[in-house]
Give the backbone structure.
Amino acid sequence: MPIIWDPNRRLINIETKTSTYQMKIDEYNNLIHTHYGGKIGDSDMSSEIVYLDRGFSGNPYEAGKKDRTYSLDYLPQEYSCFGTGDFRITGLHVKEANGSKVCSLHYKNHYVCKGLYSIKGLPRIHGNADDDNYETLFVEMTDEVSGLDVTLIYSVIYDLDIIGRSARLRNNGNELLTIEKAASMNLDIPYGNWQWIRYIGRHAMERNIVRSDIYHGVQSVGSVRGTSSHHYQPFSIICKKETNETAGECYGFSFVYSGEHITEIEKDQTGSTRVILGIHPDNFCWRLEQEAELELPQVLLSYSNEGFGKLSRNNHRCINRNIVRGKRSKERRPVLINNWEATYFDFTGEKLIEIAKLAHEMGIELFVMDDGWFGNRNDDNCGLGDWTANEEKLGCSLKELGKKINDIGMEFGIWVEPEMVSENSELYENHPDWVVKTPGRNPNLARNQLVIDFANPEVCDYIIKSLSDILSNAPISYVKWDMNRSICDKHGNSLDADRQGEFSHRYVLGLYRVLETLTTNFEDVLFEGCSGGGGRYDAGMMYYTPQIWLSDNTDPINRLSIQYGSGFGYPVSTMGSHVSASPNHQTGRQTPLNTRTTVAMAGSFGYELDITKLSMEEKQQIKKDIYTFKEYYELIQKGDYYRLSSLEDKCTAWAMVNNDKSEALISVVYHDVEANQLPTHISVPGLDNNIEYNIIYIDHEEIPVHRLSGMALLNGGLSILPSNIEYDSYMIHLVKR
Ligand code: DGJ
């Protein structure tokens, strides 16, 4: 059993395959965090807390009279509260009706349940309740004065070293409580010097890695944009200076939430490191009436003492097995073609059919009609909200177009952006009050569009109805759900003045309700998330949309770093990735077709270019590539992912290894060419030491097949042939002989 209670020492141990998480209820009923890391057997790590009388670190009243060394100002805690002597960053800020802002939680009770905890209205890890691998710990805490009860929840996935942390707040007092900040997780690491890896970016350049020391003071990243954002990821890692791909300690923090978030880190006066992750407090203020409850979103906490590679693979497995849901996510995802970079808004039904026919001949399985098919939307200044097909442009109804695509032999999919409205639209004319804007002020425009208020249940019902009508009346088996701006001017018309601080979180809850309803009612439809590419690429969205358009940047060389950064927290199956035209539309860079293909194949694979303009050789090559992709699909989408290079190397290389290690696929992309080239030499981990592998360069029959053992590939390494073609790439199949 993963969760062990020792009543004598009042210790709770959460055991995963290679980690122990330990907390202790001390003599003052405070819940002290004593260990998270490698295994510790049955030791009580509270013995290693050094109690000292530190100046200006006060003592809780009941302790202070007899023990001046006991202070919440430095003790490692499970969940920190503001105002009662812990002067670090704290997770919970509560205001009582009398204006008091202090809170002090004490242990009341705990219990353990089989299975994983289901959070009402929010995404979370799921798994079969009878599976012994899964167990959940509930620790009930209370603030006796205000009557606030907080249940700390720890859902354990034993085999993946993952703990899903969340919390539930309940007002059991006699008066209103206002929650001003409520983190989902607090982790105190009492000792050691640590580094922080976070992912920063911007539109079309998402998830660049920044790694630096955690210094004394407070550091944070977050988003107040209404979405998780292109700019800062709700996934980050804490590690030792020496931690690398294959060795060293690291902790992963992945927020299963798609709205505003903050990760805060403080190294305090004693050198201890506190990490807090939760909903960003800037736009958050929740009225918790008597007997009301507030469920907080989940954080996936993971631990590895074998470097980032293992941490990533455990997170990948967790997302593929315990986050992503739905029939379509388990089936082989179709190879798709999207018309956005082929035509933008400038298309007719005839042009789409021409592309679809050719795509089908090449082996592409799904045709996706992107933006511009509805209302009067012929550019990005109008039409959003009017989800009726522009029959004049399409030359037929949506249903007929879908049928024509089906008759060609392909599935049919559409793009929608349901959270938005253009002023120049019928929806806006009929419901100007549904727009997110502050009374008396003009709202910000972005891409000339406005946000509609998903915090309003009436709006959500309307969206469910209008999308259900579309999906029921045309043969649509794929939906790309886009969201193309940040949200500001936050104010919800359906909320009272004293509930406006709930707007941002209620918006996300509304979005999740809409997605839950649609994905449940239309289980044959594959949903792909998008927010101008990767503006809402997070584990929360993955619960509803098993793949997400990773970035509006389709340049394969830029994509290498975007995919590399994204891969630390998320599996390739979630990364929408397409082969586009050369020169690339975002960067102007020219790259060979094989490299665009190699890069796009490390994701949910598709095409996004006008294939009717390609040469005969290119068309033939694509046909061959799609055949190759289908052949290696299981390996690419379900294999274990190994990074074989770092961003500083002259090439980017990665491998996918199958379950029984009988096969692997190595991809290598050169960033540059130089004269008198040297080969690249890489060590290949993850294989079976005792297996002999045939090493086959795919699509390079001229390169002779040779053979090495798993042990030799790991310890001796593989030399990758140099190339004198700029941005060239190779895919290399290793197969047990
Ligand atoms: C942004 C998306 O990321 C693109 O792929 C495309 O769908 C456009 N929106 C359409 O407006």
Summary: Residues 340, 370-371, 415, 482, 484, 530, 532-533, 549, 552 surround DGJ (CB under 6 Å). The chain has a mean pLDDT of 97.
